[in-house]
Amino acid sequence: MTKQNKAYKxxxxxxxxxxxxxxxxxGCVRFVYNKMLEERxxxxxxxxxxxxxxxxxxxxxxxxxxxEFPFLKEVDSLALANAQIHLQNAYKNFFEGRxxxxxxxxxKKKQSYTTNMVNSNIKLENGHIKLxxxxxxxxxxxxxxxxxxxxxxxxxISKTKTGKYxxxxxxxxxxxxxxxxxxxxxxxxxxMDGLYVESERGEKANYPRYYRQALDKLAKAQRILSRRxxxxxxxxxxxxxxxxxxxxxxxxxxxxxxxxxxxxxxxYDAVIIEDLDMKGMSxxxxxxxxxxxxxxxxxxxxxxxxxxxxxxQLVKIDKWFPSxxxxxxxxxxxxxxxxxxxxxxxxxxxxxRDHNSAINVKNEGLRLLA
Length: 370
Ligand SMILES: [Zn+2]
Prior knowledge:
The protein is of the alpha+beta class. The chain contains nine helices and 14 strands. The strands form three sheets. It has a seven-stranded antiparallel β-sheet with strand order 2-6-7-1-5-4-3. The chain has a five-stranded mixed β-sheet with strand order 10-9-8-11-12. A two-stranded antiparallel sheet has the order 13-14. Helix 1 runs parallel beside helix 3 and helix 5 packs parallel to helix 8 (296-308). Zinc ion (ZN) binds next to loops. One of its GO terms (molecular function) is DNA binding. It comes from Savagea serpentis. InterPro entries: Cas12f1-like_TNB, Transposase, Transposase_put_HTH.
């Protein structure tokens, strides 16, 4: 038996009093996060030339601010503790080259906090959820049940820029997962302007047309917003429009990534991908936003857990593996400029460039699996 995690996300419908309390908690979480970040930043400046010393420095804790700022005692202390964990993770990601230096949290962004299940402080019953420090349970729109054998571990409560409240409930359950014999394998080549090209038929997984149209609409709305006078009534109206479009496209993208990862996890026993360093890639190639927004990171996370829960595998191959240079037929390597869409080898092999890469990724994965 192994422990598995699964998250369930629902709309929350807090009343006025509850909304005030949630706002207070978001505010306190943001406050301690920014306080701790400020301290960490100073430490970083002081010791940045001495990585060993920097590692030795103790991380500030939320408890130390409670005397100076007593309002922090009024909210869920687990939420504050989680702010510390989030910041620590953000730091770790920065140091290990996966992310940029953590930024201060702003009131204008999406608001959220995370709390944990401790001694049944969270209860889900009769269409309401009881959360720590909030007296009256909050109404929840539960479109699907959480199975009885799933234990609640933590909850993340969030408020979007358009004022909608959500709760993501992380659960844990035991499952007997047998590793299955790997027979059907597919390799994926990351595609900058879509999602990926697969090795079997050379098919490209591209975002649907309605999504790309929605993105264009969003970009247009953002341009209009940038021309409006900040703080004016017309600006505020447009800001809300942008936020709504943004939420809509984010949902569409998420659904698409769920759909594609589900399809692959159903049809194959192992999926091979390159272990890409997204941050390095967008910097080195100057692609900027498109790589980050492409959704590859989210997609590979979905893929990983969907395969895992069936005893299947996601195999990541080295990011330096020369998947584009190699001829997937004879194994010879050559430089191929980005502008060349077709791979032609002296052995006579001719194939679409990305399809050739995807086959190389697959073959390398098969070698690692053997
Ligand atoms: Zn060849």
